[in-house]
Amino acid sequence: MAYQRVLLKLGGEALAGPGGYGIDPQQAKAVASKIGDVLRHGVEVAIVMGAGNLWRGADGLAHGMDRATADHMGMLATVMNSLALRDALERTSVTVRVHTAIEMRTIAEPYIRLRAINQLAKGYVVVVGAGTGNPYFTTDTAAALRAMEINADILIKATKVDGIYAEDPHLNPQAQRYEKLTYIEALNLRVGVIDSTAITLCMDNDLPILVIDLWEPHSLERAVLGEKIGSIITP
Q: What's the structural domain count of the chain?
């Protein structure tokens, strides 16, 4: 394996239905299948979930909502997505533990770093919800933080595009695609696929970031096997 332990960042859209909203059990099942392909190689997988399919804080801010309130609502939405993904994975006989940065013991474990590492070593999938537990931080930043805490070999951001582009490829099909960037180059380009705080945190700790298209056939499996895929940000 190119990587023994990975932190997978999934946007909430990965679980959404055709309209891009809500939780579609069939989509959750498809995501679980892709994760299962990786687990069969003995790779340890931790996941941080986003919430874009259920709530976007920017929408609330646009209507005058308090930022902290909007962010806390987003954290709760990530927990809903985490539970949906756990259910889909468990139906494929994968052992899963859901941790949350905000305690809600009746439905998930409070996030404890050493407990998460121990569970990963046992072959469990650890899904972390509620971001960092603090407003003003995105789930990308939460993913970078958790990746460092669990000593992951790489942060994989699985999206709907096959890498990092100079412009939105959905708006400009001719946009330049980058196969490899340094952290400084990514920060200077203000890449939209992952936020600058997450990039800076990874830069300070020499953690590579790989951006792939989750829905490209076997993309996640190919990534952990070390095949050339997507766009990577490295020192």
A: 1
Per-residue pLDDT of the chain (235 residues; tens, 9 = 90+): 799 999 999 999 999 988 889 999 999 999 999 999 999 999 999 999 999 999 988 888 888 999 999 999 999 999 999 999 999 999 999 999 999 999 999 999 999 999 999 999 999 999 999 999 999 999 999 999 999 999 999 999 999 999 999 888 888 888 899 999 999 999 999 988 899 999 999 999 999 999 999 999 999 999 999 999 999 999 8
What pTM was computed for the model?
Answer: 0.95
**What CA–CA distance (Å, rounded) separates 199 from 234?**
10
Query: 159 has which bridge partners?
Result: 213
Task: Give the range of the structural domain holding residue 143, as residue numbers without chain letter.
Answer: 5-234
Q: Report how many helices (DSSP H) and strands (DSSP E) the chain contains, helices first.
A: 8, 11
DSSP state of 111: P
Task: Give dist(CA 122, CA 48) in Å, integer.
Answer: 19
Cβ-contact 86, 15 below 8 angstroms: no
> What type of residue sits at position 180?
K
Residues 6+ apart with CB under 8 A from 80: 23, 51, 54
Tokens in use for 25? 């059990």
Instruction: Specify the CATH number for the domain of residue 102.
Output: 3.40.1160.10
For residue 47, give the nearest of 21, 84, 2 by alpha carbon. 84
